[in-house]
Amino acid sequence: MTQIEDYEGVRYSLAKNKKTIIQFANSHFQSMVSRGGGVVDLRHRRLSDDMVVIELLIDVREAMGANAVNTIVEAVSPYVS
Description:
The protein is an alpha+beta fold. It has one domain (about 5-80): Hydroxymethylglutaryl-CoA reductase, class I/II, NAD/NADP-binding domain (Alpha-Beta Plaits), CATH 3.30.70.420. The protein has 3 helices and 2 strands; from the N terminus they run ααββα. Strands 1-2 form a two-stranded antiparallel ribbon. Strand 1 (about 40-50) and strand 2 form a beta hairpin. The protein is elongated and about 40 Å long. The mean pLDDT is about 90.
C-alpha cells in the first residue's frame, strides 16, 4: 500500500498513464487478450484523504476469471505504486 499525499496528482497521473497501465496489465495475460478479452478500462475512487482504490475492468471472456484477475492485479500493483 502506498500513502497518498496528493490526490489530484494521483488522479492526473492515472489519467495520463491509463493506456500504458492497461497495456502493461494485458501483457501479463496474452492468452486472454488473444481471445478478445483482457483489461478494458481503469477507474479509481477516493476512499479517504490518503487512500485511493484503483479498479481494473477485465473481460475474462469464457473463463471463470478469478485466477486471471489475481495474476493481473498482482502484476500491476507494484507498477502503479
